[in-house]
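Can't attach files on this board, so I'm pasting raw text. These are the components:
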Amino acid sequence: MKTKFFLFFTLLSVFIFAQENAESAPADSVAVFDYSLVKSFTLSDVGSDDGTALKIKWECTDNPENKNQFRLYRLTDGDTVRTLLGNFALSAEYTDENLNREESYSYSLVAVDSLGVEMQGIVSTDLMKPKANYFKTDKIILLLMILIYTIVIIILVETVKKGKVLFVRKISGLDTLDEAVGRATEMGRPVLYVPGSSTMSDIATIASLNILGPVAKKIAEYETRLIVPNRDPIVMTVAKEVVKESYSEAGRPDAYSDNDVFFLTDSQFGYAAAISGIMTREKPATNLLLGMFWAESLIMAEAGNTAGAIQIAGTDAVSQLPFFITSCDYTIIGEELYAASAYLSREPLLMGTLKAQDYFKGMIIAFICLYLFFLIISTIFGGNVLFLNKILDIIRFIFNS
Amino acid sequence: MAISTSIWIWISALLTLAIYSFLYKDNPFYKFAEYLLVGISIGYGISVYWHNTIITKVYNPLVHDKDFLVIIPLLLGLLMFSRFFKNYSHLSRIPIAFIVGAGTGLSIPSSFEFLFKQVQGTMPTAFTIGNLIIIIGVITTLIYFFFSMEHKGFIGKVSRVGITFIMIAFGAAFGYTIMARISLFIGRIQFLLSDWLGIIK
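---
Top answer:
Structure tokens for the assembled complex are below.
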């Protein structure tokens, strides 16, 4: 009886095991994927680009039991080997970037079973060349805003040129410039002007060199020595021109020393170490740190503070401003740096620009307030009023560039 | 304790100490380290310019790829050397004008784009107390940066709220950056005590 039961149990186990194995066998690995399930497989050019990207999109009929994936391949015209771009879901889109606009490409989808084995059959697109666009059409609003801003600047500049006096509020850091330069003269020590660590393409550097002009003129009038160490050779060349011209305007071209506007090094911390050395050895009575600064800001400002110089610093680098505030006597915060050149020189062009900036800020405040107003009303009505949601979307769209 | 026997670790450690000696006062060791850093960085910079600019962007396109458009920036670059000749030094203003003009032109759209993103970030999809604080902060800060209005009366009060927001942001940034700087300092001390002196593992 025991033997019969053992035999029966063994046969039953073998039968069940065989059944289980039959169920778990990769049945779909040998199957052919039904490509009629692919509803669409499209290849299109990515707009507003330099002709280096194509967009591939495919969609499959919903099949919840389907555990398959697609493998996407790219084939360059003239090549025989396809490049695998990756595994994707049955419905997805992919943007193929860094292509060559001189070449044509086609894409293929190959189904992959649940074990990752490629199934039979393939679906491909036609060949397509990526197209380069002259204009980024998605930036139209940005262009319009820049044009409006430029027109406002031109109108205001012309108004100032006709003699209208524009009011500029007091900027305390700049009001002390006279005092700071006067102190250096009284002490018989030089003024150190650091135009930041960035290049000429940085707005803060351009603003700094705009400030350097009137500052150098003042220094020339006081007959004080001005030291301008630079990190960028191009900035140095521009700084030389600015200082030279200012000395000429002040009627002191002979006082200009070409050796005092010099290049140090383009290494960030090498520049900081050298400036710290200058502050300690030359003992300037006034340090002006105006422009773009990074991690070196505190090293310079602390060295100047230890040397006992009066320090006026200004930058639009938000992360560096706290260091200047803690270690300098006066700090010009962010946009005050851009306003400084207009404040000091009172030139019509700069004054007009400053006024236009204020109008633009006013416009932004108006848009934010308008948005807030409609958002509050929309919230009161439970956020379901289509008309209000449309208005909110339009306002957001304006700043979507 | 196992003091390092590597000459490079020793050089690195001694130069670190030479730089730190400035915290006491200016001294010959600091001067040596400073001059060494400036000198080496200039030398290194020249070799980088040579390989990455002269060879890669001028020589290779001109000689190997026959791309003669490179001659235009090359000539502009060569004009910078006119500064060494008094009678022709004015020619150096041409490449300067090009760089300043192109630099400013390129930075205007990107600055506007950055500004637009910030404005969009100030437009929340839901009305909450947190979002309201952000909006008030942005508006008052913008009013602080109005230059054509005296900071008196209502504007004065609003701009004071604005500068308070700015100072809170600066305080947070200060604390965050100090943390990062301290971690850099810890890294250096670890190098001295571990890699150099072998006191800690």
